[in-house]
Amino acid sequence: MRAESLWKISRKASKTCRKFDKDCIKYEKTQMDSDVKVGMFLNSAQGILKMGLATVLITGARLWTKGEIDVFTYLVFIVCAATIYNPVFLVFNNLAELFFVNVRLRRFREMDQMPIQHGNTEFTPANYDIEFKDVDFNYNENKQVLKKVSFTAKQGEITALVGPSGSGKTTAAKLAARFWDIQGGTVTLGGQDISKIDPETLLKNFSIVFQDVVLFNTSIKDNIRIGKRGATDEEILKVAKLAGCDDFVQKMPQGYDTVIGENGDTLSGGERQRISIARALLKDAPIILLDEATASLDVENESKIQRGISQLVKGKTVIIIAHRMRTIANADKVVVLQDGHIAETGSPAELKAKDGLFCKMLELQMNKN
Fold it and tell me: For residue 97, what are the contacts with CB-CB under 8 A and spacing of at least 6?
């Protein structure tokens, strides 16, 4: 029975991969068709323009040789034709870029039309428990991402969100910090509805480490200091060592003063992730959101950083998202999401005993390893 369940999960994963491949091929074909059509249009337009200039030259020369126009008139026509041709030619050269810019402008307009979130700027919660009550959420009308989701992430506990890709784990974590407003139900922090709290005020209580790290073209020290304005060099060095940054920073020419490029393009994925974790350690907020925080690391470095994270999460509300089951081995509660709803919840030991979706995911990962 267990082998049959694993086979079903594996078959579903293969089906998802095949669908993803088809979507990529379809997208690539659409892009190629669009590029070919734009290229044909631009080249045809430029060809017609060049033919027009050539026609002026040939026709004018013929009229001049017949004595119907003088040389001055002929030169005037050539200058006028060239004057008209050059700006039109430049417009056609830039027309392709205008098409691409239009796509981005539409996206900017969509962002500009999004409703601005407001709320109280004073927030003093009794505790830092996060509670989801029958939460519904969708990015657009066609797809429901979360359906009647209810769970509580208590202060002093680690709550893990697990489930297949696309089940709504990351969405749930971001909703806890009010990245978006929900369509149904409530999300509360310390008993207060977060939809009534100003987003900037709310985010002061969160330290967030997402899988996609955002870094800036400045020194490692300044990138870590974003977590706490005015932090001393000693504080930065302390959290950097806890996050495992010291190992690679010491090999750099200027150490912590080394400029790492736009979004840390001189660093590996694991090194960028460690800087992000150091930043969260420095902020020392009462609520921690970890979304695949160690996904870019090998087992050895993951073990090192887990020690730093253990210092980060003491006595705090922690929501952690991970595909690696060993990452959530010490979680107090596991919430298993599937297709936008909660499939099961409990401690890791309780869920293993149930032999449900969590147990099947665990076994599937062990078989892969």
Answer: none
Residue type, 199: P
E-state strands within the chain? 130-137, 146-153, 158-162, 184-189, 192-193, 206-209, 287-291, 317-321, 333-338, 341-346
Are 172 and 146 spatial neighbours (Cβ–Cβ below 8 Å)?
Answer: yes
Between the alpha carbon of residue 293 and those of residues 36, 172, 246, 248, the distances in Å are 42, 16, 18, 18
- Hey, what are 337's tokens? 């999401």
Domains of the chain, each with CATH number or no CATH: 2-113 (no CATH), 130-368 (3.40.50.300)
Tokens of 240: 């950097």
Q: What is the spatial distance between Cα 44 and Cα 32, in angstroms, rounded to a whole number?
A: 18
CB 223 within 8 A of CB 252: no
The dihedral region occupied by 264, where left means phi > 0, alpha psi between -120 and 50, and beta the remainder, is left
DSSP 197: B
Quote the crossing angle between the two packed helices 269-283 and 233-242, to the nearest 10°.
Answer: 120
Query: What amino acid occupies position 194?
Result: I
Digits of tens for pLDDT over the chain (369 positions)?
Answer: 445 544 544 555 566 677 777 878 887 777 777 777 777 777 777 777 777 777 877 888 888 888 888 878 878 877 877 777 777 777 777 776 777 777 778 878 877 777 788 888 888 888 899 999 999 998 876 678 889 999 999 998 889 898 887 888 888 988 999 988 888 899 999 889 999 999 889 989 998 888 778 888 889 999 999 888 888 989 999 888 888 888 888 888 888 898 988 888 888 877 888 888 888 888 888 998 888 766 656 666 666 666 667 766 777 898 988 777 677 777 889 898 888 888 888 888 888 888 788 888 777 766 655
Query: Which residues face 197 on adjacent strands?
Result: 120
